[in-house]
What we know:
By secondary structure, this protein is mainly alpha-helical. The protein has one domain. Helix content is about 60%, strand content about 10%. The protein has helices at about 5-15, 20-30, 40-50, 80-90, 95-105, 110-120, 125-140; strands at about 15-20, 65-70, 70-75. A 3-stranded antiparallel β-sheet has the order 1-3-2. Strand 2 and strand 3 (about 70-75) form a beta hairpin. Helix 5 (about 95-105) packs across helix 7 and helix 6 (about 110-120) runs antiparallel to helix 7. It is globular.
Amino acid sequence: MYWLGAIIGTMKQYGGRIGLKDLYRDVSLxxxxxxxxxxxxxxxxxxxxHSSDAxxxxxxxxxxxxxxxxxxxxxxxxxxxxxxxxYVAKRNDEGLNEIAFANVVSDATLAKEYxxxxxxxxxxxxxxxxxxxxxxxxxxxxx
Length: 143
């Protein structure tokens, strides 16, 4: 699973902001393998590594999240531009996968198809859904 993409896609479903408890719950539904007991720490670390509002922000990462309140995070207004500048311009394949996965998660129909594939242990289909979105993303950027 693409942690950053799952977080962004889930936040998009909630209008760009979400409490951590809801985020943990919804992100866990996207996982195709057993989650560790501390997956919530991975979610928090991913958010903080991509937010200049956090002390643990990793310089060089796209700054896409903003702290709204205690336990509540949101997407910066220009989050997609920041991701495109960071990943697409550099042709960072992992970054392109994150963006594609965020687009899958935020699309109700595709998210349902993805979760159904994961629940059926059909990782090939799940990967194909993300790969198709990635191809569309690259095609749109070239236009």
